[in-house]
């Protein structure tokens, strides 16, 4: 479904397809696969019917983690209400992902290399499988259901454990066989080592996890005391000079990354998601300033905080499932309804050319 026809606010009455809004309509099984947990959901036209979270079992090896994915699908299917047809499965997975061929090229946290996930999942389930990168799935959800609705050209930048972007150009996702949007890696030759093999990558100090690691490295604080960027920000706001320097350095690099996207693609809108966006204006105001500082002749983009929060991946996986079912000839909804935005009202301010507006 292109952005040109995306409705401003999807609901069970507008998603269309067979059984839209009906208690006997089709459903999809949606999985957002992470390095630690698998978030799974059963979704119909009216939204999420049920959810479950199970361990990924990544520490047991690639065979065990993929078996955990199949087990999560089976567990959700066992809970499908009587009379409901499972039309497809949607999978959102981390790593370098080639959506066109259904292959995970490399997922370091899962130790998956050249794994034909879509083909294996289709064989195991007997269902059409929609398949995509976790951040691009989140971007797809924000584009069709959330903060990016109606924006034909924009990027969704997710800042959490890592940093990545999903790019929408002329109303279509741009993936380039999985390589587009990997903005958290490269661009430096010095600094802390990165799992990608580089040094000083943005993910090592500008991601939510990277900020926490950077602060612990500089101060000797424990992971129990400073598990994430939230604690770094709290200490910065309490007057901790090291925490403030870590936060400012990370946000400045994020601003540079956003500016690089804008300089290359002239994007008018950037949706900011991932765990770090929960900081609200403490992130958005300095990020806006940083973006401006790296742009000269280009128009400053509008920064929009994501609306779907941590549920973006599951919603995106469900959209991939609906698309796969339709491609297989099923008459199903184009998309599903969502509940109220997951972010707090204070974090939903828009950053415009005039700064943050309430």
TrEMBL record:
Protein name: ROK family protein
Disordered, as annotated region: 1-23
Matching InterPro entries: ATPase_NBD (IPR043129), ROK (IPR000600)
Domain of life, per lineage: Bacteria
Database matches in SUPFAM superfamilies: Actin-like ATPase domain (SSF53067)
A family per Pfam: ROK
Species for this entry: Cellulosimicrobium protaetiae
Family: Belongs to the ROK (NagC/XylR) family.
């Amino acid at each position: 479904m292109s952005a040109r026809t995306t409705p401003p606010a999807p609901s069970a009455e507008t998603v269309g397809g067979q059984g839209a809004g009906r208690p006997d309509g089709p459903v999809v099984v949606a999985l957002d696969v992470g390095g630690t947990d698998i978030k799974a959901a059963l979704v119909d036209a009216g939204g999420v019917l049920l959810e479950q979270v199970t361990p990924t079992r990544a520490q047991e090896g690639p065979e065990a983690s993929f078996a955990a994915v199949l087990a999560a699908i089976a567990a959700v299917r066992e809970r499908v209400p009587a009379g409901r047809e499972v039309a497809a499965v949607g999978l959102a997975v981390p790593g370098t992902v080639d959506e066109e061929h259904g292959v995970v090229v490399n997922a370091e946290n899962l130790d998956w290399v050249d794994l034909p996930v879509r083909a294996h999942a289709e064989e195991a389930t007997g269902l059409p499988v929609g398949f995509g990168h976790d951040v691009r799935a989140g971007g797809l959800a924000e584009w069709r259901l959330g903060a990016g609705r109606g924006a034909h050209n924009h990027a969704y930048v997710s800042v959490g454990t890592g940093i990545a972007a999903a790019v929408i150009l002329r109303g279509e996702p741009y993936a380039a066989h999985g390589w587009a949007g990997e903005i958290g890696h490269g661009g430096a030759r010095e600094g802390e080592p990165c799992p990608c093999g580089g040094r000083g990558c943005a993910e090592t100090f500008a991601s939510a996890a990277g900020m926490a690691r950077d602060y612990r490295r500089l101060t000797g604080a424990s992971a129990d005391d400073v598990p994430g960027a939230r604690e770094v920000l709290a200490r910065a706001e309490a007057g901790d000079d090291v925490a403030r320097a870590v936060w400012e350095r990370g946000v400045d690099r994020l601003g540079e990354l956003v500016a690089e996207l804008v300089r290359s693609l002239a994007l008018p809108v950037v949706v900011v998601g991932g765990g770090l966006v929960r900081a609200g204006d403490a992130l958005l105001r300095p990020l806006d300033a940083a973006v401006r500082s790296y742009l000269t002749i280009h128009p400053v983009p509008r920064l929009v905080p994501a609306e779907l929060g941590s549920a973006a991946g599951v919603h995106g996986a469900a959209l991939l499932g609906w698309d796969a079912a339709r491609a297989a000839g099923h008459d199903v909804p184009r998309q599903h309804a969502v509940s109220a935005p997951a972010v707090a009202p204070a974090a939903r301010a828009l950053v415009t050319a005039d700064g943050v507006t309430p």
